[in-house]
Each structure stands twice: as C-alpha cells, then as structure tokens.
C-alpha cells in the first residue's frame, strides 16, 4: 500500500460538529452534546477518505493550551500524511455540554460516542453549527486517540469501553487509576509538586463557568472523594481504568517521563504490565524527562508514524512484533527520576540537534537532543528479583547509619524514633563494586509503633545524594486500602511504603541511601521503627537482554 503524502500548500478544510450523547449530566432535560473542531486535508473535498486522529482534552477553554499542546507530529504533518485531526472537548468542558465528573462511566461513554460518530456508527448522531444532521462520510472508519496528561487519560477511557473503530491510542503521561493521581498515594495526600483534588479539578479545569445545574453533581464529588478517611472506595473504583483493560481493542503506545512526579510513573507502568499480561498490542516508552511527550526523540517520531500507518492504514510494517519496552538513559547513565528531570533550557554546546545551530533561539529548547543519551529496546519489562538492604547502625556508639545486604552487619540497638522535623537520617550503602540495575517498584517495609497516635510515613531514595524516587504510606491501611483500621498506641504494625516505579542503574563507586520520615506530624505524633524488622526491598535486574541500543544525537 502506498501512503498519501499530500501537498502542504493547500488550505485545510475546517468545520465544527456536535456529537449527541445519550447522557444528560447537567439534568436540563436535553442530551449532552460534545464539541468537535475538525481539520482535514483539502483533498477530502475532492473525495479523499481519511483515517482520524482525535486530540481530546479538558483544557481547550484555555486560549494558550493548543499552542502548548500541539498534535505529537504537528497538525501540518498529520494533514500531509492523510489524516483528519479532531480537537474534542470532553464532557463539561469548553464548548461541550454537561458537567465534568472526571474519569467515571459518563466520561468514558462520552469518549466512545465521539469514536462511534467518526467510525460511521449509524446510531451515532452529529450536527453542524446550525443543527443540521451530519455524518462522517469522509472517514475510513479507522480512529486513533492521542494526548498528554489528562489529554492522555481520555484515550484510555475511550479504549476501555471497547468501542468499535478505535484502532490505536497514544496516551502520554496519562492517568490509569484516578486514585493514584488525585491527591492520593496509598492513603496519603502526597507533598511533591503540589496536590490536585478530583472535585476541585472537575470545577475549575475546564476554564469556564460550569452550568448552575452542575452544583449538585459537584456536591456529590465533594462527598465521594472521602477526604476524611482517604480510603479506596467504590467512588474511586469506578475511576480505575485498570479494572476494564480486558475490553481494550486499540493498540496502545504509552509514553511517560521517568522524572514525571506530576502524573506519577505508577500510572504508566501498571497499565503497560496489565496489557502485556493480557497479550494486547502495547509498547511503553520510558523517556528521561518529566511531564512531557518525548518529541525530541526522532525514534519516537518514527514510532508514531509506524503505529498509525499500521493500525489506521493497515500497513504490515511489523510494528506489533517490535520490542514492547523502550527506555531512554541520559548521558553517562545519569539516574532519571529527580524532580523536574533533565533541563530543557540549557542552550550550551553540550546539546546537539536544533540547540547549537545558528539562530537557535527560533527553536523551542524542548526540541534539543542531549548528545550521548541511549535508547534501549527490550522485549519486555525486565525480570527482577528482590534484594533486601537492611537498615543498621554502625560505628562508634552506633552514630553511623548503614544500608547493607548482610543482615548480620552492624547493629539494631533500640528502636529509631521519628517525629516532627526529625527523620531517620540517611542510611547509606558502601560504594557499589559493579554497575547494578534496578527496575520496578521499591518498598520500605518496617515494623512500627505509634506511641502518640497515628502518623503517616514517607521514604525517599537517593543515588549519590540525588533523589530518585519516593513514596508514602498511611498506617491505617496496613491491611487494605479499602478500609482504614484503628491504630493502637501500644501495638506493632508492619507497614509497607511503596515508592514510584523507576528503571535506573547505579554505577560502580556510587552509593544508595534512604531516608524515612514521619509525614504530616503536626500534633507531636512520633513513630518508632524496629530496625531488626525494617528493610529496603529493591527490584534487581540480574541480567539485561537488550535487543537494540541507539545513541541519541
């Protein structure tokens, strides 16, 4: 099959459509309609049929958003490749009707209704600005969805409905489980990079004044989030797309920043692993920066073209047989994961690509490619085994703190007490002799007591003093996130602190360290750790099996 490569000089066709749903979320007695702004190659006016790439979002009411969040390969390039681009407002945002409810069944249905109309479902209804019925006769009935952040969450929601015609999705930095993003992390309101509440997000993120009829809906959200217990309730279960992945038919290309501490890496890794276990077509690109798409990687750009040509045009290019896991390693095996990730504003000669070319100020720094980074492709997320580092005291009077794989090394002495502004101190390994790779979720398991009442815990992992990952735990959920338990002052509890997934290598001569603290200890609460029963559990990669390694330049 020969793919189209259309002239760039012809003005595209542009028009609006409102897709009618069976929902009435604002309770005004009328079906909610969803606003689509459609851009097509000029050749559609001469009979060309095209597949469709949808860019759904909640943010189009922000005039600056579309400039910041362009289609991944650029609108002009998609048009030249023969795609129609659709900018879609999710329910309750910008030009769409209804009330925002965030990641629930109504929003999933809204995404599916858009696909049905674009894929030629005879029961799907669309109307122009004058209310005249319209059908997508120009569509090949093959649809993809792509986006970043909440715009990357919406394609997942559409896909888990199993809607016919949705052939591919490309979620970048998307949310797979609302509980793992909206002011929640294992029963704790986390403190890194601020807090986004689901009920607050529903009210404000659409950048417009919600209809008055939405106030009752928002009141239900205020109650449903359950900020009192922070438990994983039915309200949150309804917003967990991972429970619905068996319905997904769309080939899923996931992108996520290893240093993304906004939409935390757990969201991408757990979605990838769930789809991989279900033998669905999926690939994860774990890039080295933060909350952004890896547009600087030409390999990523090629992959998008392959993904869409395979699943929208039906080209047998073999993309489904490619390695399912791709990760970017910064130059010098620098550990990715720190807040903010790799700098995008350095215009020095250490960067190649657009950055050090004449008149480079005309280019966005995010287009820079760091010379010497490596793109590693593997068949799947690597197999790991747990290696435990024990927390010990050492040295004179036990003043030094040690992290060791030898349980007999050092001493435990008495319990370690943590309180307000008093953390554990830094438990540090000896410098490692060999390059050692860890890939997955890291845990601190500790036997704890709370003599002055319950307090949450936080752990932070470092490599040579640079923060790599962190996590939190609420002792009330030591049995299950679904129901908080009473915490007695004289009882011991085994608590597991789950950190955000990472994939990194500790080089010879570098050291690992961990710090534990009592989190939100505002009323004098303390926690004691029994070091004899406290360990850092790391997912060790014994043997890597890379299929290919490409130096970025």
Briefly summarize what is shown:
The protein has 553 residues and is an alpha+beta fold. It is built from nine helices and 27 strands. Helices cover 15% and strands 30% of the residues.
List the helices and strands and how they pair.
Layout: E1 13-20, E2 33-40, E3 50-57, H1 65-68, H2 75-80, E4 84-89, H3 105-118, E5 125-127, E6 133-134, E7 139-148, H4 150-159, E8 166-172, H5 198-204, H6 215-224, H7 234-237, E9 251-257, H8 266-277, E10 282-287, H9 298-311, E11 325-329, E12 351-352, E13 369-370, E14 374-378, E15 385-394, E16 400-404, E17 416-418, E18 427-428, E19 436-440, E20 443-449, E21 456-463, E22 466-473, E23 493-499, E24 502-506, E25 512-519, E26 527-541, E27 546-551
Parallel strand pairs: 3-4, 3-7, 7-8, 8-9, 9-10, 10-11
Antiparallel strand pairs: 1-2, 1-5, 2-4, 5-6, 11-14, 12-13, 14-27, 15-16, 15-26, 17-26, 18-25, 19-24, 19-26, 20-23, 20-26, 21-22, 21-25, 22-23
Helix pairs in contact: 3-4
Could you characterize the architecture of this molecule?
The protein is of the alpha+beta class and about 550 residues long. The chain folds into two domains: about 15-380, Rossmann fold; about 385-540, Jelly Rolls, CATH 2.60.120.260. The chain is built from nine helices and 27 strands. The strands form three sheets. The protein has a 13-stranded mixed β-sheet, with helices on both faces. Strands 15, 16, 17, 18, 19, 20, 21, 22, 23, 24, 25 and 26 form a twelve-stranded antiparallel β-sheet that branches. The chain is globular. The chain starts with 12 loop residues before the first strand and ends with a strand. Residues about 340-370 have low confidence and may be disordered.
